[in-house]
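Let us work through a complete example step by step.
Step 1: write down the sequence.
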Amino acid sequence: MSSTAQQKIDDIHFEISRTQKNKATEYHIGRLKAKLAMLHAAKIKAEAQEGHKSAGTGFAVRRTGDASIALVGFPSAGKSSLLSTITKTKSMTAAYEFSTLTCIPGVLEYKDTTIQILDLPGIIEGAAVGKGRGREVISVARSSDMVLMVIDSSRTAESFGRVNLHLTKPVTCGIEMQRRLLTKELYECGIRLNRSPPDISIKVTKAGGVRLNSMVELHYVDVNIIKDILNMHKIHNADVLFRGDYTVDDFIDVVMNNRKFLPCVYAINKIDTITIDRVNFYAHCKHTVVMSCQHKLNMEYLLQALWDHLDFIRIYTKPIGEKPSFHEPIILHRGNTVQHVCLFIHRDFVTKFKYAYVWGKSAKFQMAQRVGLKHVLADEDVVALYVQR
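Step 2: predict the structure and record it as tokens.
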């Protein structure tokens, strides 16, 4: 069944690649993409039931710390060297490929936070369909809070041979080739990098058919393709609301409801092997850090980039009548409120909450500001909670 499903997937990929993309073919391509998503999901489910999806030794890692980051990359990209550089864990490094065969965890301590770094075996093309234990590697990445994609800048595009990215233009840059290949493997396993979940709501109803509403003008979808995709999933009555101008792929992600949206930092390693012009170009690319593990170049900037992409904030507590405690802060995420501080300490603090005083960047005044549960906090704020006795 697995080979038959894979053949259907390959056929649809081929059909999409040979179909000219224009206004007249949008509906046809949308249907193909919806079928492709369903085939991927059915294939993974069938393999799990037939026992083809082995758990494998060395991949079950207990989560520790405030967040976990998965190191993803091709063999010999420098993942193990990076783990040994930024943590106290020594991962085996060698001049040959696949020196790492299991998941090796390390601990990074940075700005009062503890971050788990997971060194995974190198991914090869076809990992999404199980090649080279790729499913196990990507499943660990899915369960992480962030992806750190390590790219070997010394590799050329020609070194990958003939690969099928289903692109309209060929890729001639080795760095771009690695980024696109890895992104493609993760995408086919339901991981979306550096993207927010589409703000689309689907409310299934008992009657009335499919009704499409939008808060903006839609340029990529219409009610017909929406109905068709929902009908494929046996949804014939629903109210659909678009709060943004999203594509067919975005709508399919919402319907499938099994996608993981993760932040990602692209670490361009071995920059000592390329020209200064290319280093300068990639240094100014979004979500990208240029570095060298061997020469320990730009390591501090990489750690800061990881911190920024995890959206951490540190909150210090102040017991009533005492000085603030600047040791072991509460680690929250940007956008969290006083209520999250209460829940972190004890859930009873929410029901017994009276008010709080806040000092720091989120306060309107230089002195303390009295706030409620919904007050949004900022990094390094000091909070004093007042609750009912």
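Step 3: interpret the result. Confidence is low (pLDDT under 50) at residues 51-58, 94-99.
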